Amino acid sequence: MSFAIVIPARMESTRLPGKVLADIGGKPMVQHVWERCLASGVGDVWITTDSMELTEAMPSWADVVTDTFPIYSGSHRVAVAARTIPELYDYYIDVQADIPFVPPAAIRAFASEVSVRHPQAMSVVTRIVEDGPNVVKVLRRLDGSVITFGRKVKSDWREVGIYAYSAATLARYLEHMEQHGPTKVEKAESIEQLGFLTMGVHWDTMEWAEPMISVDTPEDLERAREAYVVA
Q1: 133 vs 217: CA distance, rounded Å
Q2: Helix/strand/coil for 193
Q3: Which terminal residue of the chain has fewer beta carbons within 10 Å of its beta carbon, N or C?
């Protein structure tokens, strides 16, 4: 089974503009993510963005795909990139650009689970350590599959920004986006995974024991910098 890891990166973050290029230990945050994805050894690693500033900030040997038309979400950006990337893969692992310390072991374990379970879509979830208005929670069935995602959902589990999509699922999602755009619930909640659920996609999960730092606010960025110094 073949995998591509695709890191969608945009500069226009609402809560922390330009965060993907924020300096952590002398490197932009997106480079930390990229290096850890490479270290996982799971497959080819691509960055997809509409920013020339970000493209120029990456090492010259990084594989970068650019897009120049309206993109509604990270998953939409990954779906567009999957059509643009010359190679074909069975699965595309979407690793968000704001998880600077994503464990390579988590990506390897995730790819292994995908290889066994052959999901339409799947994500990594962790226990909620610290709740807040930006935490997207995951309500799951007994078998671990997703009922829904939401910031106001009552659940002990959260998504961390690592997803896997089969090539067929991404192609179907991209066709829907090109014909109809994002669904109403996806737009209302600003949670792209709800668009897939609305389309009837079956979504599985893999639990990961350790929490992961996600950078959404200036306070998160300071915590990430402090964690880097400690490490």
Answers
A1: 11
A2: helix
A3: C
What the block records as the tokens of 120 is 């339409």
Q: Residues near 109 by Cβ (< 8 Å), separated by ≥ 6?
A: 206, 208
Q: Tally Cβ neighbours within 10 Å of residue 66.
A: 14
Q: Nearest 5°: phi and psi at 160?
A: -115, -5
Strand partners, 44: 4
CATH level 2 (architecture), domain 3-214: Alpha-Beta Complex (3.90)
CA separation for the pair 129, 205 (Å, rounded): 18
- Residues whose CB falls within 8 Å of the CB of residue 12, separated by 6 or more in sequence, listed in order: none
* Spatial contact of 192 and 73, defined as CB atoms under 8 Å apart: yes
- Residue recorded with tokens 């979504």: 203
Per DSSP, which regions of the chain are E strands? Answer: 3-9, 23-24, 27-28, 44-49, 63-66, 91-95, 121-127, 137-140, 146-150, 157-166, 203-207
Beta bridge partners of 158: 126, 137
What are the structural domain ranges in the chain?
Answer: 3-214
11 touches 21 (CB < 8 A): yes
**pLDDT one-digit tens code per residue, 73-99:** 999 999 999 998 988 999 999 999 999
In this prediction the pTM is 0.94
Compute the distance between CA of residue 44 and CA of residue 2 in angstroms, rounded to an integer. Answer: 9
